[in-house]
Amino acid sequence: MDLIVVKTKEEAAKKAVELIGTELKSGRLQSLGLATGGTMVPIYNELTETDLDFRDVTAFNLDEYVGLDAEHPNSFAYFMNEHLFNKKKFKDTYIPNGKAQDLETECQHYEQLLAEHPLDLQLLGVGENGHIAFNEPGTAPTTKTHRITLTESTIEANSPYFESKEAMPTEALTMGISSILNARKIVLLAFGEKKRDAMEQFLKGNVTDECPVTFLKNHPDVTIITDLERLQE
Asked: Which of 99, 154, 189, 195 is 20 to 30 A from 232, comparing alpha carbons?
């Protein structure tokens, strides 16, 4: 595990893009796992300013809200188009379809796509309660892409992006813990004191489904980029 401590999100973005660029230029990057949220915006801003060519790379996103279509301004599909896909050309881009008629079939289809395009690198954020993607506390490490009910703390954290708390979906489709751990390399980004408890549990605590990020301890190649100092003291 490699821990990189930075001062700013902009510095973190440069480090993350450098790692992605190294994998791409080496020919090791055919499939790239992506995430959404404020943590990722500086990374995508930095990425779109480079001359890195992703036309032979397939992109997969971690999750999507149930009930939102790609045109909804709070959907993750809309976020990705706005911040990256409209600016950088990829071979293919996949995001779970939260409006699918049969959500179970959609999850199975997404997992099949992941099996056909094994992830070479996965970008991850972490929630205040330790969730990764939308795998909330209590999620088993064997889970594959699935439908999940969001916890109250996640709804509280994400609802400011919506018109009201009531307007925010309470369910999502998400890659499972197992799906994420199948990635050859993982880059985890964590910023702000609200993430300290989860990160300290990850680095110093036991592996437990009560803090899903701790499952990354079982992965052979994880790079952490964070502005949180003294995490290993």
From this structure: 154
Instruction: Answer for the pair 154, 127: CB distance below 8 angstroms, yes or no.
Output: yes
Asked if residue 200 is part of any domain, the answer here is no
d(Cα 114, Cα 63) in Å, to the nearest integer? 13
The rounded Cα 25 to chain-centroid distance in angstroms is 22
The domain spanning residue 157 has which CATH number?
3.40.50.1360
pTM: 0.95
Sign of dihedral through CA atoms 140, 141, 144, 146? positive
Over the chain (233 residues), the average pLDDT of each successive run of 10 is 93 97 97 95 97 98 96 96 97 97 97 98 95 95 96 87 89 98 98 94 94 97 94 65
Do 163 and 74 meet the contact criterion of CB atoms below 8 Å apart?
no
* Alpha-carbon span 153 to 213, nearest angstrom: 16
- Helix (H) or strand (E) holding 50, with range, is none
How many domains does the structure of the chain reveal? 1
CA distance 194 to 19: 25
Contact 16, 45 (CB under 8 A): no
Strand-strand pairing, 146-149 and 63-65:
unpaired
In a domain, 206, yes or no: no
Catalytic residues: 63, 129, 131, 136
